[in-house]
Amino acid sequence: MNQAIGHKRWAIAEGYIPSYGNGPEPAFTSHETACILNTSDLDAHIKIWIYFEDRDPIGPYQETVQAKRTKHLRFNNLKEPEPVPLDTDYASVIESDVPIVVQHTRLDSRQAENALISTIAYPVAI
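Structure tokens predicted for Sensory rhodopsin transducer:
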């Protein structure tokens, strides 16, 4: 591919990480993931903000997705500036300095019959 695809700002309006799961860890740990695709020739410097119903946002969390690579960022693993709280509804905004594509995935393993959902994030025009 000769040119970057995607957008520089994305929103995921839904997020929730259960505090428990069913099955061996880490494979069956309930989680939220932002799957990020960077097709550009430049590294993507990512900033993520987490929004809540009843408190101020936290962030930015900062990550890098190398040029012409993909990275799956588990929200469970975001630690700085603070861990994303469990058992709490949230939404997120992801910004990049180069165009990227973002897909949202959740594994909910609270029951033995695990549920996996995935959807494209919402691209926000700048």
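The radius of gyration is 15 Å.
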